[in-house]
Amino acid sequence: MIQSNYKNRFTFDDIKSDTGLKVALEKGAQAVISEITDSKLRGCGGAGFSTGMKLKFTAEAFGNPKYVVCNADEGEPGTFKDRELFTNYADFVLAGMTIAGTAINAAEGILYLRGEYEYLVEHLEKVLETRRKNNLLGKDIMGRKGVGFEIKIRLGAGAYVCGEETALLESLEGYRGEPRNRPPFPVTAGYSGKPTCLSNVETFARIAAIMAKGAAWFKAVGTEKSAGYKLFSISGDCEKPGVYELPMGTTIAAMLKVVGAKNTQAVQCGGASGRCLHKNEFNRKIAFEDAPPGGAIIVFGEDRDMLEVAENFLEFFVEESCGQCTPCREGNVKLLAGIKLLRNKKCSPAYLEELVALCETMKIASKCGLGQASPNAFLDIIKNFSSEIFMGSN
Amino acid sequence: MSDNVIQKDLQNYIASLVTQYGKERNALLPILRGIMDKYHHISEEAMQSVADHLKIHAIEVQDAASFYSFLGTKSKGKYIIRLCQTISCKMSQALGIANKLESELGIKFGETTKDRMFTLEWTNCLGMCDQGPALLVNEKMYTRVTAEKISEIIAEYRNKLAKSKE
Question: Is the whole-model pTM more than 0.90?
């Protein structure tokens, strides 16, 4: 096991992992869906869809069996909060999946774990086994007749795009991890074409916590549009990198203080597909309505070459594009070549304008979030650091 | 082992994986991962055999096998070392570790040692950004890797193999 680096105290530390499951079973499916909807919890993987709505849609969808799928394909550069949850709070995640299962009337949950985290399988299997022994999984959960739920682990095989929900489903079904057209959404046609509640690891853990402490407790912190607490994976140029739980709406500046970051010139917020924020923007809030709250925060000190950062991200996207749609497959290659020209001071302002136009095309025309978001960091870095980029060029 | 024996061994092993994971299409990835664990690549014979069991065309097996970076259709070493190349690890001096790995193993990234023991590859974010540089040796994760640690890790696997041959 990999031990945690720095972290603060999480709200999970003050809750028993299965109190939420007990409450959920006592109150019943409808009450779970209302409680989660009322809590204003939104998906913690980054897209931020209302979790209550997702449960409701899956519960109401036509078709059987129904499935719960946990997206543990944590591949966004700079993200490692799910690793922390599995290492120290796995019961919350599994309890949350079980609660979701009872809410939508599903008997089976699948935990899709990225291949890179294979080292966690042994630990997770042990936790699952203990839950079975303690009657928290399997048949007649907590002694309730007819309430059954099972969870199995499926490993990915090294493909970032499988974090996209429909690509993940393709992978689970034994195909290349190429995103599907949406709609239909997984809530109506997910795993094997059946209604599927597919959510991020942290979202399931939050479900368990909210059922234990109540919707009012959760939405008491955060902002109007982004309620509650959120885990942040913070790395890069700071004294105390690690996983921190902070209220939604925390400013970048406040976060930098927590991790002991000094002389910071920029922060990558939301991973490689997120936004690169210049120091003038550190008063911005991390929330769905402002700086993306996916959870990955990479801190760049004043000595870092931001074009090198952009190049690293684009190399990533070129490698991880599934190749299915042209704007993403070809666009990222062009942007990477463009960054190399910029680094060598051989990119004319006119060509840079063309690249910026290409970014817009990619955002509009790419099939999934990968291609739609991959130009973000490029555009931000061009915008924020253009004075340095053209310094000394002809 | 003669080619026939190897073939027979492969066929038996695939049959056991099919018994374990089933004949449905959704068993394909677990079966292919199983083949990787033992043979370190998925040969054309293996693809055909899996296709026969699952009653799909071999090209469909290749289609999936060629997509995932942890599955491979080309022969690799017994231990695949994957060093994280993503930004946080890069900022914690992953390049120095890369040089050390190359000199220690005498190969470049993308290559396999002559004794078929080690393959060296770059990989994308391993989720260890707060404790980089990070690398995987097969499924085992190593964090906060230093040049000295590299020598120890390589020696550990060389010893393991030497012992298994005794």
Answer: yes
